[in-house]
Write a structure and sequence with these properties.
Mean pLDDT: 92
Helix content: 25-40%
Strand content: 35-45%
Oligomer: single chain
Shape: globular
Largest sheet: 6 strands, antiparallel
Radius of gyration: 16 Å
Length: 139
């Protein structure tokens, strides 16, 4: 599978889109090597009105359009934590199911994961193991 990705920089209004295809291994390398803590510290140094985003990476499967995002922040103890954003097709009921179901893109988010847990879920994403990610949202 191949992916593209985008970066949300705290100080920039525009999201940086990198559309060159990358491999599963490159996705994991980018996320592991991203300077999460340095970006958070930099964000903290800015005037709050000049902060546009929390440091974030979003990876999209080029073939099926399914995406997975990681956004960093601090927990209550000041330690690095992540929220995950999983955007994929999902069957939804129309008018409480009276008109059946249809498939549409839906984003689920999950908060307060540590770095290792976040990378593990990113690994599931790049491997196409979407059902394992969905289990996280059912807890």
């Amino acid at each position: 599978m191949t992916f593209k990705y985008s970066i949300c920089h705290p100080e920039k209004e525009e999201i940086e889109h990198i559309n060159n295809p990358i491999s599963e291994n490159k996705v994991l390398e980018i996320a592991k090597d991203y300077p999460w803590i340095e970006k958070l510290k930099f964000s903290d140094s800015l005037n709050p009105k000049n902060v546009h985003y929390s440091p974030s990476l979003d990876f999209t499967n080029i073939k099926n359009g399914i995406s997975f995002g990681l956004t960093s922040g601090y927990d209550k103890k000041g330690k690095l934590e992540f929220s995950l954003w999983f955007n994929r097709p999902k069957k939804v009921k129309i008018l409480f199911g009276l008109l059946g179901e249809k498939e549409k893109m839906v984003v689920d988010d999950f908060w307060s994961l540590n770095f290792e847990e976040s990378i593990q879920h990113l690994q599931y994403f790049v491997n196409g193991n979407y059902s394992t990610i969905e289990k996280l949202y059912r807890k």
